Automatic annotation (TrEMBL):
Official protein name in the record: CoA transferase subunit A
Stored Pfam families: CoA_trans
SMART domains for this protein: CoA_trans (SM00882)
Signal sequence bounds: none
Source organism of the structure: Acidiphilium iwatense
An example molecular function term from Gene Ontology annotations: transferase activity
Highest taxon of source: Bacteria
UniProt keyword terms in alphabetical order: Transferase
Amino acid sequence: MRKVYNSATEALAGQLRDGMTILSGGFGLCGVPMALIEAIRESGVRDLTIVSNNAGIDGAGLGILLESRQVKKMISSYVGENATFARQYLAGELEIEFNPQGTLAERVRAGGAGIPAFFTATGFGTAVADGKETREFDGKHYVMERGIIGDLAIVHAWMGDTEGNLVYRKTARNFNPIMASAAKITVAEVEHLAEPGAIDGDHIVTPGIFVKRIVKLDKIDKRIEQRTTRPRVSVAHSSLEKV
């Protein structure tokens, strides 16, 4: 089965349609499938429901799909860095389904594991529980949350092989593994592409059975979401302070 494609556009060919639900890996701008998101923007599909920890920022990540008004609904845990999102939401042009971050992660994990619903104490007695079934177990109250399954998952991995096995690097692992397991089809962009057997089996995070299509990136766009620095202290000044 052919899994490797020459470009993000080719990898997504025939998989996009209006109104679909897309799971997107990443956290902030770390481990975000930038090339695949750009290919979705270029396709022009609309009325998308996007499941992601956050909505990117203005001009980067999922933010570019908001700017092109291709997103109908976001299912997220945090969207505070995106002014475009705020404007569209306040104008009633965009739906949002907020989730506590752990609940969102478990909803996606549950979807990938074939679990239709689960109970969690998080959110009970708050707006998060509005309209949802609640139960009491051993004297404690819980909210029922539904598992999430997407039509398509897009993920970013540090390395993959031609069979679709994926390895993530450090914090770029974040939401990518669970997103890869919880969709009808998963497309991965990888920084490095290896031949079958080249990746130590103990290092594989996402088995190739979950991944249907792969594209190797020609260039890698790694941005810093929040750059925080402090004034450099000269060696002479630092030495005087210690005297």
